[in-house]
Amino acid sequence: MTLNLETPKEIRASIRRSEWTKSTHGLAPGYVQANLVVLPQKLAFEFLLFCQRNPKPCPLLDVTEVGDPEPKLVAPGADLRTDIPKYRVYEYGELKRETTDIRPFWQSDSVAFLLGCSLTFEAALLQAGIPLRHIEEGKIVPMYITNIPCQPAGLFQGPMVVTMRPIPEKRVVQAIQITARYPKVHGAPIHIGKPGSIGISNLSQPDFGDAIRIKPDEVPLFWACGVTPQAVAQNAKLPLLVSHAPG
């Protein structure tokens, strides 16, 4: 069966019908991809404040009305309970399950936050001829929990998560310039080279995603990542937090 995956609406419909179940990297070039966080209303303001104080890892695109799974501002007609290939459910800081449908966990007081995702700017990097190893290897971009603290807001405090992409040394400046044009999807890298200085001891052991090969002439570049709320949720031991599965 040939899937029609040309527009975001068609992609979401395919996911909802369980026809597309893989990562969304490489899909919908030219459109914004988003990370998801779902919380009860009583925690929504504190998380909104957390996003405002930490715009690099948590660039806010939209917030739903209480109990409404439709992000009317950025994706009218979407259903955030079913339109993402895989979700994660955290209870008291522990990952309890992964699922393709969060309707059983959606409550009348649920509020969803959509945060910009760095998969968005990958099309621009590829168009400029900058190679992306995780795409070449058919893997999920590697993500790491760093020692960089986020600015706290109430219960929400903890370390920043970053994605890593190895870039040829001669293309590093160009990669920085290209991604800096996308501030709503994390923008320019927050760190270049020397992973140990941000608390990453082994690039071959990511906390999320897959390990990828780094060539001798490449430099690891690190971008702030929208998986940060998952690390923060583990820290805060929130009763319930639902998110997208990394990658």
Shape: globular
Number of strands: 10
Radius of gyration: 17 Å
Low-confidence stretches: none
Organism: marine sediment metagenome
Protein name: Hydro-lyase
Family: Belongs to the D-glutamate cyclase family.
Keywords: Lyase
Reconstruct the topology from this structure.
Layout lengths: L7 H9 L17 E7 H13 L6 E4 L23 E5 L2 E6 L10 E7 L5 H6 L5 H4 L6 E7 L9 E10 L3 H9 L10 E2 L25 E7 L3 H9 L4 E4 L3
Antiparallel strand pairs: 1-5, 1-10, 2-5, 3-4, 3-10, 6-7, 7-9, 8-9
Please give a handful of descriptors for the protein shown:
6-stranded antiparallel sheet, 6 helices, 247 residues, PSTPO5379-like, alpha+beta, 4-stranded antiparallel sheet, globular, 2 domains, PSTPO5379-like fold
Q: Would you give an account of this structure?
A:
With 247 residues, the protein is α+β, with helices and mostly antiparallel strands. The protein folds into 2 domains: 8-14 and 25-118 and 235-244, 3-Layer(aba) Sandwich (PSTPO5379-like); 124-228, PSTPO5379-like domain (PSTPO5379-like fold, 2-Layer Sandwich), CATH 3.30.2040.10. It has 6 helices and 10 strands; from the N terminus they run αβαββββααββαββαβ. Strand 3 (87-91) and strand 4 form a beta hairpin. The radius of gyration is 17 Å and the shape is globular. The two termini are 24 Å apart. Keywords: Lyase. This is Hydro-lyase. Pfam families: D-Glu_cyclase (PF07286).
Quick take:
This is Hydro-lyase. The protein is built from 6 helices and 10 strands.
